[in-house]
Specification:
The chain is α+β, with helices and mostly antiparallel strands and 223 residues long. The chain folds into two domains: 123 residues, Jelly Rolls (Sandwich); 69 residues, Arc Repressor Mutant, subunit A (Orthogonal Bundle). 39% of the residues lie in helices and 25% in strands. It contains eight helices and twelve strands. Strands 1-2-9-4-7 form a five-stranded antiparallel β-sheet. The chain has a four-stranded antiparallel β-sheet with strand order 3-8-5-6. Helix 5 crosses helix 8. It is globular and about 55 Å long. The two termini are 25 Å apart.
């Protein structure tokens, strides 16, 4: 992870971040910029959440760790999403792993400072409420489509959501669980993608045919 203060970043980066500098209301002046590499861990389930974050660029995934050591993907994070908001609201007690799918840029503030100050900031709480409501609606829409669309459509959307630099490399077991299908059904559909030229095996995973997968994915957004 690389850390930058708001007054120590280049003009080019500053222009990209400018729309988000006030996302933390009265505490925005104390925010820092965090840049994580692809596959880097942002939060470990074993560690306390010490910062409230907002994703500016990139994408990441949240995984729940089970008692037997297995993990399940429960959510994907895209630009415009808060990270740690349920800890800020003192709702979430069990932490989850968060890993970057691509390089991720966050703006963040100290969690203790956020709890002490932002709970009195009506504008910030309204924006946070809007975000949580939109997140709930998005999840509801995804669950509906997950039941009504064929696996090939959902798998195409999933591949597009989790690919990095046009290469897909997710574990089949986690994919099957997230899409709520059998491992065998997933492998069969995955093979048809390979046979149809939608995926090509490369050293780091599978190179994707983004244009054709996007047609298959239709209007499905992975949450």
């Amino acid at each position: 992870m690389k850390i930058f203060k708001l007054d120590n970043i280049s003009n080019k980066v500053s222009n990209e971040i400018a729309p988000y500098v006030n996302v933390f209301g009265v505490l925005s002046s104390s925010a820092i910029i965090e840049v994580y590499d692809s596959k880097e861990c942002v939060i470990s389930y074993e560690d306390p959440i010490t910062r409230l974050r907002f994703l500016i660029d990139g994408k990441a995934k949240i995984s729940l760790i089970h008692e037997n050591g297995n993990q399940s993907i429960v959510h994907f994070i895209y630009p415009g999403e808060f990270v740690g908001e349920l800890t800020f609201l003192e709702i979430e007690k069990e932490h989850k792993n968060i890993h970057c799918i691509s390089e991720c840029t966050f703006i963040s503030i100290d969690m203790s400072e956020a709890k002490n100050t932002l709970k009195e900031d009506a504008d910030f709480l309204f924006k946070l409420s809007q975000f949580i409501g939109e997140k709930l609606l998005g999840r509801t829409s995804f669950n509906s489509k997950n039941q009504n669309y064929e696996l090939r459509n959902r798998l195409a959307a999933y591949i597009l959501a989790t690919q990095h630099n046009d290469v897909y490399s997710e574990k089949h077991t986690e994919t099957a669980e997230y899409l709520n299908v059998s491992y065998r059904h997933l492998l069969y559909t995955f093979k048809t993608f390979i046979d149809e030229g939608l995926l090509i095996k490369v050293k780091k995973g599978f190179e994707i045919n983004e244009e054709q997968l996007a047609i298959l994915a239709k209007d499905i957004t992975i949450f």
